[in-house]
Amino acid sequence: MTLQNIQDDLSAADTLEPRAKLFRGLGDPSRLAILDALLSDERSVQEIVTQTGLGQPNVSNHLRCLLDCGLVSRRNEGRFVRYRLADRRIADLIRDADQLLASTAVGVDACRSYTG
Amino acid sequence: MTLQNIQDDLSAADTLEPRAKLFRGLGDPSRLAILDALLSDERSVQEIVTQTGLGQPNVSNHLRCLLDCGLVSRRNEGRFVRYRLADRRIADLIRDADQLLASTAVGVDACRSYTG
DNA sequence: CTAACGTATCAGTGGATAATGATATGACAT
DNA sequence: ATGTCATATCATTATCCACTGATACGTTAG
């Protein structure tokens, strides 16, 4: 085993799980729809429910997930709660993914391992 | 509903599923470990098995998934099969994710929705 | 031809999780 | 105080998917 491999393994041990978790956070159509709704502006839960067509408890669940992950932040306003993206780089990450998907090489549909 | 929302919905309908699928492809520790092994160089299945500690059928399964998705490409060499990243931007995406995780705000561990 | 090796496929299994309906919590208005 | 609205939580269910062991396929060596 080379030094390079050792370094890879060391860094992998520490960063693999969080990395996977971040990508999994982004790897659900419902959560992506929610993030999409937040791309342009801050939104209340109701607005997100309307825009995404998802059920309200479902949206709340995913928002909790996204909040715990630190991907969104919230702000109370009376009985409304307004959510927004926690970091610009999240939008960047999504855009980069779209660019990658626009490449001819990357054709995710063909993957039979999961139905997505 | 504003024009902006309509545009969001239209783009979402087309790109949400593939996007989610791409992120899910990246959202598994085993697949990330495999991609990690390929970051620095081309590798045979055996080498990946050794470096990741995963089972051989398991690695083959994930490689098939990654291949179908277009995230890796393969090359036959005798009875060996050597895999490599299909696109530099995949490594970029992973690095960007790591940078995001280095931020204080994004702390994925706290997410209780999935154990990952 | 046959043995040995590298890789891929398959079926079975356990564990994880997204969605739903019911319900709880909290805030505002009258 | 009470009703109403916005949001969050909970339990249930049904589905999905990663892993394993056995095995098949393909290639090289002897």
UniProtKB/TrEMBL annotation, chains A, B:
GO terms for molecular function: DNA binding; DNA-binding transcription factor activity. The keyword Calcium does not apply. Transmembrane segments: none annotated. The keyword Lyase does not apply. Keywords: DNA-binding, Transcription, Transcription regulation. Residues 11-105 form the HTH arsR-type domain. Pfam families: HTH_5 (PF01022). Signal peptide: none annotated. This is DNA-binding transcriptional ArsR family regulator. It comes from Yoonia ponticola.
